[in-house]
Amino acid sequence: MLMPSWMNPEHLLTWLGDWALWGTLLVVFIECGVLFPILPGDSLLFAVGLFIAQGTIHVPLWLACVLLTIAAFLGNVSGYYIGRALGTSLFKNPNARFLKPKYIEQTHDFFERYGPRALVLARFVPIVRTFITIVAGAGKMDPKKFFLWTGVGAVIWAPGITLLGHALGNVQFIHKNLEAALVLLVLISLIPMVVEYFLARRRNRAAAAGGPTDGGPKHAAPKHAVTNNQND
After folding, report:
1. For the whole model, what pTM was predicted?
2. Among 22, 106, 135, 172, which residue has the least CB neighbours within 10 Å?
3. Rg (Cα) of the chain, in Å, rounded?
């Protein structure tokens, strides 16, 4: 087995049985904003689509997509209001298992780089998609702008990956190598973080050498703040 059982979507959905879709809704809600980032979000959505295609989950595909979109949206809204209420005060212990200060730093940098669009892009980046809503809330991002962009992200992410799983659900190779395909999906979802890591190293080396960075000269933004006057 390539993944622990609680991270293995196939095992999890089989264990949930008739409650598979409802359990998935709960996982998506939690991962999208309730401070628990280590959950099989992308791979679970893919597996749900695949199970629907195979007839294992007896729910219309359109209904599953609608419910998953709602769960993703409400999860982010919850994270936003947690951030508004508590700020980043929960992220104080560098040795914490989940609420590490570095996660807030990384997410803040992600937000600074992409602006409100980060709420869409972060859907496809594990860990960042959990904490970006906290950063948006702590920075008092305009609620209307937040709801708009996080809604767009939910509509693209949840149905998109579910539909991909459904489209590949009857491909024999995928069916026979489901766990390997799910692991590959997780690795692919990590590519943006890896690329950003190397770009950050390049910018840091250029800054240390006194040369220009990729983004050119910028004024430093206050940490843990998301301004409301960012361009859409």
Report:
1. 0.71
2. 172
3. 19
